[in-house]
Amino acid sequence: MLSPAGRLEVYRPIPAPDGDSPLGAHTHLLPKLVKLKRSCSALDPIPEGWQPFLTLHPAAPFRPSDDDSHDYDRLADLSFLPLLEEFGMEEDLQVSGTFQAHVRQHGTPENLKIPATRRGRARMHIELLRMAARAHEGMERFVPADTIKSATDCG
To answer: How far apart are CA 17 and CA 82, in angstroms?
Structure first.
């Protein structure tokens, strides 16, 4: 990939249409995004008129970057929070804060108002997965067991 900002080379094969994406760093054009004339997911917070050129992600607390499965990595999860608090989108911070305050007060996310935006709902789902991975009692009512298993075991 070339841009005025620099050059990035990723040496991973592009999978066949019916194949799986490789684990680890990889890049490819997604036909659905190209057809929609989009350069990124609708959930990516790119300001109007701007184009993304590089996306960085924290260490995945649920999933390794290679074939080995592992349990939830609390340290990886917690080490990213200061960056999220400093640079995160206001909506993400608000949804996370509301979710955490509600659970602290009521012990469960039950009766918590679901965010109106797609991004807000995605953020709430992340908070549910984080809480379930930390083995918060009663979470199986809110997050299906197979979702928790796949998010934490990757196996």
So the answer is: 38
